[in-house]
Specification:
The structure is a single chain. By secondary structure, the chain is α/β, with parallel strands linked by helices. About 45% of the residues lie in helices and about 15% in strands. α3 links the parallel β2 and β3. α3 packs parallel to α4, α5 runs parallel beside α6 and α10 packs across α11. It starts with a helix and ends with a helix. The protein binds flavin-adenine dinucleotide (FAD). Flavin-adenine dinucleotide binds next to β3, β4, α5, α6 and β6. GO terms for molecular function: FAD binding; methylenetetrahydrofolate reductase [NAD(P)H] activity. Belongs to the methylenetetrahydrofolate reductase family. It comes from Westerdykella ornata.
């Protein structure tokens, strides 16, 4: 991923898309068709595949990652958590990722599996039997130790502070900072953020990192995580789960149309496009990237990418443009 980012021309923007493994073979077949269409039409710089807490989707995540990397030729990043599961699952996932030609891992701690999350029956139920990994930084160090620089490693960050079962309230992001420094020093190559709608929180967060006296965030890509608004209910649920705040002025715009699903989507595309444009205007270190939590859906993200002119030209289009430019120069 970082090689691809570095190879982009100066001033270029890029984006990535997140997908999760469907539960059924039918879901997989449908997603594969959608992924083919999206990868051709949208041309993301990379895609990421989520991992169920505790390894609950291990096989399915690898299956989806294989489709993305091998069958569709997409640069793929596998999410991998390290707590509440056996160390052998971590080892197998990394080995399998290597076999599949995957070069990117998002190294995460993970949470305790939620009861509503489905479990792969072929995997043993594990309590926190693995004492080697307590935090994401342990996984970053482990990947470096086992694989050197083979994998490009991403880590998670929280513009509004990390919150979980033990700290249900938002924490001041400053409290997490030493741990993010630690993860970065341990070998993280890029940072993906939790989703947010409060763009000013992201502004403050990014500025805090870039100015941090440790100096570790001077050049590292910090990619904001954005979730297209699919429906009023999904929005309320996901913001609650991720502890992302909804600024009042945005909520008012959505509340005004909440009875009409189509209008919610339309206003949602406008809101996300405004967030992207705002971030584009910020001074950036290197190229500016955007990561979209697609929830495996196509339309909203496609509209946002079109509105914000984030879709790169296809190879053929670039050639045509060069030819026509050349033609214009002829006497
Ligand atoms: P860590 O970096 O380990 O941090 C967790 C908490 O521990 C933080 O509050 C931190 O401040 C604290 N901490 C860290 N190190 C120390 C230390 N040395 N001493 C004391 N405290 C410390 N979850 C999934 O299950 N599957 C996914 O696919 C997934 N994808 C995600 C993608 C993104 C972009 C993000 C932002 C999150 C994702 N998550 C996923 C959720 C993530 O697993 C949870 O948020 C989890 O609670 C924290 O993971 P982390 O990697 O940030 O943990």
């Amino acid at each position: 991923i970082t090689d691809k980012i570095n190879a982009l021309p100066d001033g270029a923007n890029y984006f990535s898309l997140e997908f999760f493994p469907p539960k059924t073979p039918m879901g997989f077949a449908n997603l594969q068709v959608r992924l083919e269409r999206m990868s051709q039409a949208l041309r993301p710089l990379f895609v990421t595949v989520t991992w169920g807490a505790g390894g609950s989707t291990a096989n399915k995540s690898l299956e989806l990652a294989e489709i993305c990397q091998r069958q569709l030729g997409l640069t793929t990043c596998l999410h991998l958590t390290c707590t509440n599961m056996k160390r052998s699952i971590v080892d197998e996932a990394l080995e399998q990722a290597k076999v599949l030609g995957i070069r990117n891992i998002l190294a995460l701690r993970g949470d305790a599996p939620r009861s509503e999350e489905y479990r792969d029956e072929t995997l043993p139920v594990e309590e926190d039997s693995n004492r080697d990994f307590q935090y994401a930084v342990d996984l970053v160090r482990y990947i470096k130790k086992q694989y050197g620089d083979y994998f490009c490693i991403g880590v998670a960050a929280y513009p509004e502070g990390h919150a979980d079962e033990s700290h249900p309230e938002h924490q001041d992001p400053k409290l997490d900072l030493p741990y993010l420094v630690e993860k970065t020093k341990a070998g993280a190559d890029f940072i993906l953020t939790q989703l947010f709608f409060d763009v000013e929180a992201f502004d403050r967060f990014e500025a805090m990192l870039r100015e941090d006296e440790s100096g570790v965030f001077k050049k590292i890509p910090i990619i904001p995580g954005l979730m297209p608004i699919q429906s009023y209910q999904i929005l309320r649920r996901t913001t609650k789960l991720s502890h992302a705040s909804l600024p009042r002025r945005l909520l008012e715009r959505l509340d005004a149309v909440k009875g009409d699903d189509e209008l919610v989507k339309k206003v949602g595309v406008q809101i996300l496009s405004e967030i992207v444009e705002h971030i584009k205007q910020r001074p950036s270190v290197g190229k500016r990237g955007f990561h979209f939590y697609t929830l495996n859906l196509e339309k909203a993200v496609s509209h946002i990418l079109e509105d914000c002119r984030l879709i790169p030209l296809a190879y053929a289009d670039e050639e045509a443009l060069e030819l026509s430019n050349g033609h214009d120069l002829l006497p």
